[in-house]
Specification:
Elements lengths: L34 H14 L3 E5 L2 H12 L5 E5 L4 H14 L2 E5 L4 H7 L5 E7 L11 H10 L3 E5 L4 H4 L9 E5 L13 E5 L11 H12 L5 H11 L2 H20 L4 E5 L9 H7 L6 E6 L2 H11 L4 E2 L9 E3 L20 E5 L5 H16 L1
Parallel strand pairs: 2-3, 2-4, 4-5, 5-6, 10-11
Antiparallel strand pairs: 1-7, 6-7, 8-9, 9-12, 11-12
Helix pairs in contact: 1-8, 2-3, 2-7, 11-12
The protein binds pyridoxal-5'-phosphate.
Pyridoxal-5'-phosphate binds next to helix 2 and helix 3.
Length: 373
Amino acid sequence: MTGAVVPAIYQVSTYKQDGVGGLRGGYEYSRSANPTRTALEQCLAALEGGSRAFAFASGLAGQDTTIRALLKPGDHVVVPTDAYGGTYRLLNKVALPWGVEHTAVKISDVAAVRAAIRPGQTKIVWVETPTNPMLGIADIAALATVAHEGGAILAVDNTFATPYLQQPLALGADVVMHSTTKYCGGHSDVVGGAVVTAKTIAVPGFEDAEDRIAFHQNSMGAIAGPFDAWLVLRGLKTLGVRMDRSCDNAEKVVEFLLGHSAVTAVHYPGLPGHPGYHVAAKQMKRFGGMISFEVRGGEQQAVDVCGATELWTLGESLGGVESLIEHPARMTHASVRGTELEVTGDLVRLSTGIEDAKDLIDDLDRALTKSAL
Ligand SMILES: *Cc1c(COP(=O)(O)O)cnc(C)c1O
């Protein structure tokens, strides 16, 4: 209308009708639809090569809506053993009491996923790749085949890779989910989520998955607000350049860590020795900005390293322009202690931002040296 090169923030709840029921462009009430949210949803659908996208108030709100829209009590989900902690909590503490069961499997093991599928009962094979914090890799194309043969859809949480590095729908997935809080937003200033549906879903019983998600998004109402939608849209404009810079930095940091005497293991899918390297090389454009590593001095040293960096900010979350460091066992993964998702105490997780690589390496070097004293 105005030629504005940036979509407006429609900070509005309701819309003038041209006579009763005379909606302009389909807008009637902002829970059902809002033009800023529509702009974000169209952008996300295009980036993922999907039919339609739905923007939510958080990644977990999108996942909850997906579970409730597509499943019913008695159904079963196969989920990665190292799924995002909040996803596992949603399945274990919310979906399970509702009657939806799950089995956690090592998602990189295609045969184990096939064995975990209960014919007639398993409705979703839930995939995260790369996983958090061990950067495990799942073969999306192989798992799509296994899920479809078992009568289930394949739902991929693409938060870590982003549509820039990985296109799950093109590899056979039926639904893609995002915490847009992370790389899509990219500036640590918004919490949001998204669900994108494939152009065709051929799994019997799921042909109308898109309509069911649309209905539930409106019925449950956990939508992204206009300003949050605008922030994610703004972030997405630079997704490609941010991801390339994060990947460049991550590769240099990995090289540094591999040569450091205090580091006993580095987990990064771009390392030829990583168990998921070949699959990652096949399905990802690059290997991403997430790294985890283990230190010789055990849990105390890992905690000390996290507390000693200056440029790397100690904090949860990931995917922002500023680099973050954290201790999974005591922070992001504290809630899964004592379960099969538990991680070891000597592990440190890095989310590599877009700062100068040398500054990032110097800071880590100082922190590792200081923590070893
Ligand atoms: C953060 C995250 C989520 C949850 O998203 P929120 O926006 O925090 O609700 C889900 N999956 C992955 C992989 C995440 O990193």
